[in-house]
Design a protein that fits this description.
Structural class: alpha+beta
Largest sheet: 2 strands, parallel
Strand content: 15-25%
Radius of gyration: 15 Å
Low-confidence stretches: none
Distance between the termini: 29 Å
Strand order of the largest sheet: 1-4
Number of strands: 4
Shape: elongated
Number of helices: 2
Helix content: 10-25%
């Protein structure tokens, strides 16, 4: 739903708590990078070619928002 509203956005900011396991963090990052087969297609017009293209990536750029936090 978020990608449908902001189809040109490539970046997502994560702010995980210190209690989050490494495996859970990696699973979350993997889940927000690519569309699943059951997700509805997201189609964008390529600015350079003018051709409609189906997106394969959701948010490939992951940024950590609390990297300097003590949490």
């Amino acid at each position: 739903e978020v990608k449908q509203q902001f189809p040109n956005e490539k970046q997502v900011v994560l702010a995980p708590s210190g209690s989050l396991s490494y495996d859970s963090l990696v699973a979350a990052m993997d889940g927000i990078r690519m569309l699943d087969a059951i997700d509805p297609p997201i189609i964008l017009k390529n600015a350079e070619t003018g051709v409609d293209e189906t997106l394969k990536l959701l948010f490939p750029e992951v940024v950590f928002g609390n990297i300097l936090s003590n949490d």
